[in-house]
Amino acid sequence: MDTEQDSSGDPPGGGVGLRRKKQSARERVYEILRDELMGTSFSPYKRLTEESVAARFGVSRTPVRDALARLQTDGLLIKRDGALFRYIPTLPEFTELYELRLALERRGIERAIEDPTITHNRAALEQELAIWHARRDAGVEPSAGFVTADEQFHVALLGSAGNREITKTLLTVNQRIRPVRMHDYLTEDRVAATISEHIEIAELVLRNKLIEARDSLRFHVGESQAVVEARALRAMHMTQIAHEAEDGTG
């Protein structure tokens, strides 16, 4: 039976995605199931229960319950008929939500362009920028979990512009598109590009080059959308093929 261990080893500044020497049972269950749910082998028709997962991993139901709850928060699992199943959003839903995301984030910069009395919170943005400099210096491994660090940057950037309601809306949008956006951080090139582009955007805002910052943000989000859509479509296609093969309908 697994026992809980403390996780440690992240450098100052929040090294999301960096290798850890120790890992708790809930983290192990969460990360393995997360990677499976994002892959092509996990059917959206497969039921998940606390009992079955605990038996599989040889752990108590407490860390399993925590891991499954976290996967539901990520949007990777949905509850149906008393069990949990893999959730796959439709492409039209994802495209519309991404359009809304970009509109919200651009608005944070555009309101400062339109009204000189609106300025970004420099202290908050400088603090966020320091975190991304630390990640670039330390190196970050590709990981689906990197999506949470990416979300934090965009929320901090928009929040520094001062409109709390727009920021709250972005948080809701992020939660809904997170299951698909996780596909963006599975390769080193995409993680490296994300870090570099975040630093560029934040530095442009701090230098008051707002038009350039807005254009850089638009490119950054658009590039992410293109990569995510391609990878998610491929994953959904392979999942459907696997399910049809299991049923003998392929």
Supply the key terms:
single chain, 250 residues, mainly alpha, Arc Repressor Mutant, subunit A, Four Helix Bundle (Hemerythrin (Met), subunit A), two-stranded antiparallel ribbon, disordered N terminus
Taken from the alpha-carbon principal axes, the silhouette is elongated
At the third CATH level, what is the topology name of the largest domain? Four Helix Bundle (Hemerythrin (Met), subunit A)
CATH class of the largest domain: Mainly Alpha
Runs in which pLDDT lies below 50 for 5 or more consecutive residues are: 1-21
Total beta-strand segments: 2
CATH architecture designation of the largest domain = Up-down Bundle
Terminal residue distance: 40 Å
Structural class by sheet pairing and helices:
mainly alpha
Q: What is the strand content?
A: under 5%
Oligomer kind: single chain
Structural write-up:
- With 250 residues, the chain is mostly helical.
- It has two domains: 1-87, Orthogonal Bundle (Arc Repressor Mutant, subunit A), CATH 1.10.10.10; 91-237, GntR ligand-binding domain-like (Four Helix Bundle (Hemerythrin (Met), subunit A)), CATH 1.20.120.530.
- 66% of the residues lie in helices and 3% in strands.
- The N and C termini lie far apart (40 Å).
